[in-house]
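Service request form, structural biology core

Requester: graduate student, group of Dr. S.
Request type: structure prediction, single chain
Budget code: on file
Notes: please return the result as structure tokens.

Sequence provided:
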Amino acid sequence: MTTTALKEPVRDTSPGAARETRRRTGRIRRVGLPYLLLLPALLLELLVHLVPMVIGIVMSFKELTQFYIRDWGSAPWSGLGNYKVSVDFDAPVGEALLHSFFVTVGFTLLSVALCWLIGTAAAVFMQDAFRGRGLLRALFLVPYALPVYAAVITWVFMFQHDNGLVNHVLHDQLHLTDKPSFWLIGDNSFYALLTVSVWKGWPFAFLIVMAGLQNIPRELYEAAALDGAGMWQQIRRITLPSLRPVNQVLVLVLFLWTFNDFNTPYVLFGKAAPEAADLISVHIYQASFVTWNFGTGSAMSVLLLLFLLVVTGLYLLFTSRGRRAADV
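Core staff response, request fulfilled:
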């Protein structure tokens, strides 16, 4: 009787094979380590953003009112009913949402334009060295560094009708108005909100543009000055074209931040914003947490998300085409 013994596979124990194994293991570690370090952030992103987003989309298809708060999963499905109510612009809900949308669009365009203009002007002014430039840069960044609630509450006191600093300067000292104005109610609330938004947002534009200006060679300005180009020609021919990639990203970020801004109007006006300053973020909050109709509020949020995705996609498409045309 013949027995066949099982033989173990012969392993290469030569020094070259050991080095190759260590090299392969090190390569795997180098490639996998960045993904391993990103894993906690990806999990937190999933929990903080994506999961609530999916839940909000599901809620938009439910008739979720105050009667189903304790067990929202038992709320009946309404299909596209919440969306039909939101986009029915002949009905009170849709009409109010459309008004809030137009107010938000106008507010966002003005705020982004003023933030970019003031930030760019300040950054260009800060390019030349002068005594106290470092201190002035630090002061310019104070509005951006302050907590939102502390800064906006300070503006609330400044906008007070009887003893606010704004009315004291405009009416009592400069005599620009016949009587003290109401800044937190009525039509003036839009200008108050715009003022706070620009004051709070332009230092970010200043910081980004100032960083972009560092990449423009000074030799270009020196050559332009030798050719007889003035300051405005240098800005138009050198500064703005060189800052085009930076400005494209800056304008998009400012647009998304301003359009979605909730903290500023909520702290400035409270739960019930004036009609002239009824931004869509506060409007959706009122539709959800004041009227207790979370289904309709979720549908409005989804519509807002779709609008911002479309605008962002079109903006990136047009800017990329313009960049390719400029390169050609």
